[in-house]
Amino acid sequence: MVDSSSKADAVALLDAVPLFSSLSKRQVNSIAATAVERTYKPGETIVKQGDKGIGFYLLLDGTADVLKTGSKVASLAKGQFFGEMALLDEQPRTAEVRASTAARCLVLSRWEFWGVVGKDPEVIRALLTETVRRLRSAGPGLSE
Ligand code: CMP
């Protein structure tokens, strides 16, 4: 649970997350009220490749790198999300995500994630579009 001052802050930041642009004010308030906010130092690992996926992350502030077996494959900026893949297929994390600056994330549990995503077709569509883009970027196998 986040405290009330950062809750207002989290609501403002959540309004700027493209994935959730179709959600109502009430839904955004409810996410901000239940999700946990975490901060990371530059260079700190946020999720570890191979770990069990227990959370979904929204990057509220800062930037992060995505690394597969130690090599950088993508970078993520404020407003982007990660951690969806292991929640979708219930398999281990496909990559490490590491803060490249001081970073702040809102973390939704698996249960909260499905509560938000499972109820809104627009969120499902936005999530799938980005996930397919990530899978295509992972190698030629899917797009050829
Ligand atoms: P997950 O596998 O749960 O944990 C690692 C996360 O890194 C993954 O979910 C995605 O959110 C993210 N990720 C993996 N590959 C890419 C990629 N090519 N581009 C952007 N993000 C990625």
Main attributes of the structure:
binds adenosine-3',5'-cyclic-monophosphate; 5 helices; 144 residues; single chain; 37% helix; four-stranded antiparallel beta sheet; alpha+beta
Strand order of the largest sheet: 1-8-3-6
- Helix and strand content put the structural class at alpha+beta
Largest sheet geometry: 4 strands, antiparallel
**Which descriptor suits the 3D outline?**
globular
Terminal Cα span: 45 Å
Overview of this protein structure:
The chain has 144 residues and is an alpha+beta fold. It contains five helices and eight strands. It has helices at 4-15, 25-34, 84-89, 110-117, 121-137; strands at 36-40, 45-47, 55-61, 64-68, 71-76, 81-82, 96-99, 103-109. It has a four-stranded antiparallel beta sheet. The protein has a four-stranded antiparallel beta sheet with strand order 2-7-4-5, with no helix packed on it. α1 packs across α2. The structure holds adenosine-3',5'-cyclic-monophosphate (CMP).
